[in-house]
Amino acid sequence: MKKIDFDETAIIGEVESVNAGEVVVSLQELPDSKGVHSAKIGELIAIATSNHSIFTIGSVTDVHRTYAQNSEDTLLGGESVTNMLDVVNQLESVFIGTLLTVRGKNVNKFKRGIEDFPSPGDKVYSFDSKNLTLFMSSITELSEDVSPLTLGKYAIDKQSIANLNGDKFFQKHAAILGSTGSGKSWLVSKLLEDASNLEYSNIIVFDIHGEYHTLTKSEGGFATYLKIAGPADTALHDGLLYLPYWTLNREELQSIVLDRTDHDAPNQANRFNYHVLKQKKNEVEKNQAGVEITGDSPVPFKIDELISELKNDDEETINSATKSNRKVKGPWNGKLTRFIARLESKSQDRRYAFMFNPPKETYEYGWLQTLYETLLSTQVDRSGIKIIDFSEVPSDILPIVTGVIGRLIFDLQSWIHAEKRTPVALVCDEAHLYLPTRDLMTSSESQSVKNFERVAKEGRKYGLSLVVVSQRPADLNRTILSQCNNFIVLRLTNGSDQSSVRTMLPDSMDQFLNQLPVLDTGEAIAVGDAVIMPTRIILGRPKYEPDSNTKRFWNDWNQKPFDLDILKRAINNMRAQAYL
Predict the structure, then answer these.
(1) Kind and range of the H or E element at 274?
(2) pTM of the predicted model, to two decimals?
(3) φ, ψ (nearest 5 deg) of residue 175
């Protein structure tokens, strides 16, 4: 590759002032009355250092003009006051890295970090089209050497491919944030498409609205489709996912069936835990004698037997301790009635059938392995990228279901020896719906959030990564967002959402985020460990586009009447709580 060479014609000014994160440049006037060099937001500049082969690279964030009074001028008759003022044109730029035009046998090597900070008076150069192409080509070549994840093109040079470091992107968690309609679903589809080119990629997508079904093999795509079983599903078959209640730990199960405001809640939790553990121990003894378990161990037990035992406790009478020897209420008599009613209600509700009334095969002791194989298998006949459709899961139980899947995978990864682990990534679409901030959290959501917070804080050690996707970062859990080291931010117009992103990024990136409201659909700013150079990116179009269901209101109102046949079908679906 040809070496980047800045000549005198590329000088646009000199350093006026500098601090640890940015530099102010005074722009010089061009000869022959051509004015001053033009400088635009987002363009790159190169600042000379004491070493002629090293340049500090910055990105322009502000351009302004001021006026300073020339003390030597005096106002003459009829002369304008502005003739006494000197025009001062300046730009501000944030540092993004260092360019080594020559380093040994290598040329045009860019690296993060500042090797030599500029000083006032240092010359500042612009990139002409030739040098910009050479520089961006070196960025592309460097990113291709480190597990490339291709997003699209750089906005400043649309010929250069914008790659991320795939390893660092997943190793340290990531967040994809942007207002509705900004292109998040496109970006997620593009990311999954790139990952599908790997031999054994292992990614689980939490598809809350069922929009990624277009990526699945059944529709000519590359991913495996899974759906949380709906009310109309009564049997096991490929593509259906059941989460039997016995896969939940005690806290998760109690958050569904136990009312903590009930004054008898401690007694109810006590008897619930006692009978569940007793059943689980009996099951283990029959299948794997000698194994010690706890109440949280994922071992099958029967909900109808549990209810029967609880009813016995609730109706139990004992002999009085007095001489009359008459019958009196037992210690739990009358204290479990409301708890039993809630448990029966949940177990009989068809919306919760995937959990409380699954097919009988799911009660088998060895079925847990079948569940894990469905979630994690990367065999030839089953894609390692799984799209889990949550669209038929009731909203009040959605946080529990997502949390259980996250916790099950975390638990398994933590019990596999480090050298045997295969890394797994969880892509949490619409994450604000089930991973809210603490002030928006309900009791049922707290357990799910706790599970994902643990994944965010400890998952990297066990080969488990999070990619959270949200249109409302202001509503997204702070702890989880703070653990993300990579951010791809699309257009954000809401002030509170912009502020939430700012708090998660270094101050030096603040000026980049000022561009968020004016980004076009499909444009993003990528920042983090996985990004060689933080800059504006034009996202590539995925081959398999998601079914985002963005309606053309004005066009449809002009062309399509309301379909009464569809109305009848929709009412039937609503009554059945399933798409019939």
Answers:
(1) helix 265-287
(2) 0.86
(3) -130, 135
